[in-house]
Amino acid sequence: MWKTCSVAVLALILGSCTEPNRNQASFGVASQRYFGSCLDGKIFELKQFDYATNGKTGLGRKYQPPQLGAEVTDTTILNDINAAAFGNTPAYFQKELCNLEYLFIDRNLSSKETAGWGFWEAPDQSSHGVSNSFVGISPSVWSTSSGGMLASLTQYKTNILASMLSTVGVSTAVAYSGANENGRVVLLRAILAHEVGHILYRSGKVVDACSAEYDLTWDKYAKPKKPKRMLPFGYQDGKTSVGWRLKDIRRTPAKAVDYLRDTYTSGGWASFLATSTPEEDFVETFTMAVLTGSGSQKLTRLVVDFKDGKAPVDIAQVFLASSVLQQKAGCFTR
Ligand SMILES: [Zn+2]
C-alpha cells in the first residue's frame, strides 16, 4: 500500500559541500542518445546519495555529493523525460530544469513511497561557491507492476491526498477521478515541476518577488528564516485564513468532505497539499501553473471527486479561473 508519499521532500544542505564527482560522468559521448536538450548528458542512475539527512548540522555528517551510476540510455525513459520537460512547456519551468546539475533515476525509491526528491546545495555552505541542484525520480514511474501507485497523474495525486488524509482517518474521502491528460508524460511533468519548485523556493530567487501574491493566502508569508532541511510529509506551518487545513479536519472529521470541497472550490489553493505550508503552496501553485500553462499535453481538466454524491470539482478549471491563483502563478515569470 502506497500509504504515504514523500514527493514533498526537499533537502537543504547545512554542512559543507564539495563538487559532485564529475569524473564518473561522461559528457558529450552519447551522440546516439542526443536529444538536443539541456538535460543531455545529465541523466544518470543514482549510485548513492542521502537526500534526506546529508550534511545535517549537529549530526556530524559531512556532506557527500551524489555518486553517479551509469548514464541512462533507455530511450523510453529519455524520451519521456524530455517530453515532460520540454514539450512546449513554460520557459520558467524549462529554465529551472536546465539549471539542474543532474537528474537521477533513483532505484532506491522503487521500494519506497516516494515519487521523487529535489535537492539544493546552499551556496554559502559550498566551498566552490556554486549551488548545484539535483532531482531524483522513482523508476516506479516506468514500472507496470507498481500496482498503479504511479500509473497516472490522478493516481499520483490521489495517493498524496490519501496520505495526508490518512493521518486524520479519512483517507478514502476524496479521489482525483479524471483528467484530460493522464499518462506518463504529464505524471512526470507533475513530479518534475513539484521538485524543481522546491529547489526554486529554497534558492530564494523568486520568493521575495512573490511575497505580495502569497500574502493573499497566508497571514505571514515569508522566506523561511530557518527552513527545515526536509519537509516531513504533511508538515504544517504558517497561518492562513483562506481554506481549511488538516488540523481542522482532525478537529471535526465529520466535516472532512465539506472542508475539502471548500479548499478545492475556494480559488485560493492548487491542491490540499498547498494548504500545509507556504512552501508547499508555492510548489503546488508552480506545478499547476506548469501543467496548465502550456505544453504538448496541457492540462485543462483535473477532476476531484468527493464521493458524497455531489458534483465533483475540476481543480484545473478552478485554477485557470481564479484571480488569486493566477496572481500567485504569475509571479514565477518575473
Ligand atoms: Zn513538496
List the helices and strands and how they pair.
Elements: E1 10-12, E2 43-48, E3 67-71, H1 75-86, H2 91-98, E4 102-105, E5 116-120, E6 133-137, H3 153-166, E7 175-179, H4 184-203, H5 211-214, H6 246-251, H7 256-265, H8 278-293, E8 302-305, E9 313-314, H9 315-321, H10 323-330
Parallel strand pairs: 1-5, 2-4, 4-6
Antiparallel strand pairs: 2-3, 5-6, 7-8, 8-9
Helix pairs in contact: 1-4, 4-8, 8-10
Describe the model.
- By secondary structure, the chain is α/β, with parallel strands linked by helices.
- It folds into two domains: 10-142, no CATH class; 153-183 and 205-226 and 234-333, no CATH class.
- It has ten helices and nine strands.
- The chain has helices spanning 75-86, 91-98, 153-166, 184-203, 211-214, 246-251, 256-265, 278-293, 315-321, 323-330, and strands at 10-12, 43-48, 67-71, 102-105, 116-120, 133-137, 175-179, 302-305, 313-314.
- The strands form two sheets. Strands 1-5-6-4-2-3 form a six-stranded mixed β-sheet, covered by helices on one side. A three-stranded antiparallel β-sheet has the order 7-8-9.
- β8 and β9 form a beta hairpin.
- The longest helix has 20 residues, at 184-203.
- The radius of gyration is 19 Å and the shape is globular.
- It starts with 9 loop residues before the first strand and ends with a helix.
- Residues 1-32 and 221-230 have low confidence and may be disordered.
- The structure holds zinc ion.
- The site of zinc ion has 6 residues, from α4 and α8.
